[in-house]
UniProtKB/TrEMBL annotation:
Highest taxon listed in the record's lineage: Eukaryota
Protein name: Uncharacterized protein
Region (Disordered): 11-75
Source organism phylogeny: Eukaryota, Viridiplantae, Streptophyta, Embryophyta, Tracheophyta
Polar residues bias locations: 28-67
InterPro entries: LEA1/2/D7/KIN2
Taxonomic source organism: Salix udensis
Amino acid sequence: MAAVAYLAEAKGQTQEKASTLMDKAGNAAQSAKETVQAKTETSKMPGNTQKTNFQAGEAKGQTQEKASTLMDKAGNAAQSAKETVTAAGQQVMATAQGAVEGVKNATGMNK
């Protein structure tokens, strides 16, 4: 039963990490959208086209970098979850094997 609780805890932690990463991704996208909108408004002023294009390029690069970082974090969280679930599964298998051996010993089948 401890292994089942361990699996449930690992699942909860994984879901929490995924939720946090999704929130961060949404915030980054919203921030990028607002930056581009602000720069677009600035570009409507005469003589600011070159500067605005540069700033828009910067905003795009920063957004791509944030997205890349978030994807790396999501991949790391997924790998961590996989390792946790694998370890819990191995613990369940070991516990079950121990129970089988106990039954065999108790019934005399292990001789």
